[in-house]
């Protein structure tokens, strides 16, 4: 017996999810944390105020109920952002797919 939802919303989400997975792009489950600091060198731009501070990027991830963090070197930020965006989108698509199955199954029980 097949219970695959027939809605356009389901088809779009399932198709986009397959596209992401087949694209070969890695999916990184992590969120970004931006931290700024002053370096302490006199005459550095960061001494001029908050908006001139140096920026460091970190990714964070929950693991066994705890949050872990890792510093990301500047030259990796762009490449890793693509992977965390892929995760974000895949997660949203999975939520849509879950919803649509839920609706489909609910409708069948009414009938
Ligand atoms: Zn500085």
Describe the structure.
This protein has 111 residues and is an alpha+beta fold. It has one domain. Helices cover 44% and strands 22% of the residues. The chain is built from 2 helices and 3 strands, in the order αβββα. Strands 1-2-3 form a 3-stranded antiparallel β-sheet, with no helix packed on it. A hairpin with a 2-residue loop joins β2 and β3. The protein is elongated and about 75 Å long. The two termini are 16 Å apart. The mean pLDDT is 94. The protein binds zinc ion. Zinc ion (ZN) binds next to loops.
Which molecules are bound in this entry?
Answer: zinc ion
- Rg: 21 Å
Residue windows where pLDDT falls under 50 for at least 5 positions: none
Strand content: 15-25%
Amino- and carboxy-terminal Cα gap:
16 Å
Number of domains: 1
Estimate the global geometry from the Cα principal axes: elongated
How many strand units?
3
How many DSSP helices? 2
Which class of secondary structure composition applies to the elements? alpha+beta
**Average pLDDT figure:** 94
Helix-strand sequence: HEEEH
Helix content: 40-55%
Largest sheet: 3 strands, antiparallel
* Strand ordering within the main sheet: 1-2-3
């Amino acid at each position: 017996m097949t219970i695959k939802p027939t809605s356009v919303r389901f088809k779009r989400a399932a198709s986009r999810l397959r596209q992401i997975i087949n694209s070969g792009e890695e999916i990184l489950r992590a969120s970004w944390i931006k931290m700024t600091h002053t370096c302490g060198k006199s005459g550095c731009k960061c001494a001029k105020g908050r908006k001139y501070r140096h920026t460091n990027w970190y990714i964070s991830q929950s693991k066994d109920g705890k949050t872990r963090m890792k510093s990301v070197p500047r030259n990796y930020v762009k490449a890793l952002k693509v992977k965390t965006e892929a995760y974000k989108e895949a997660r949203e698509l999975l939520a849509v797919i879950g919803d649509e199955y839920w609706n489909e199954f609910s409708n069948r029980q009414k009938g």
